[in-house]
Design goal:
The chain has about 140 residues and is an alpha+beta fold. The protein has 3 helices and 9 strands; from the N terminus they run βαβββαβββαββ.
Length: about 140
Amino acid sequence: MKSVSINITTEKLNIQTCYDFVQDPSCGGIALFVGTVRNSTKNKEVTLLDFSTYKPMALKEIEKIAEESIQKFDILKIAIHHAEGELNIGEIPVIIAVSSPHRKAAFDACQYAIDALKKTVPIWKKEHFADGEVWVNSTP
């Protein structure tokens, strides 16, 4: 049984795909984190976001996060999907789905995965405004 689903794509992300992957009759808890593009940041109106990745390294790092999540928490499956390219307000740049026999492990693993992704995965975000643009989250 495959326990990890990783994807970086220019295609629209699908919550149901992630949910279906992690669903299992042995699991009583499924936690989902869905990041969406919001229309403002720091009192500036955002018009769109543009995500760039170093895909080979990003996939490796996401795989590492997924495996660490399985080892650290009592979870059965995890899906981590991230978009690349331009996304409009309301669109989804990241989905993390986790299943576990118990809810606490699912919640904890889901939070761990998004926090680790933001810290270590080479995905960069450019925020576009009516009057310009700026790169953010330019780490690692």
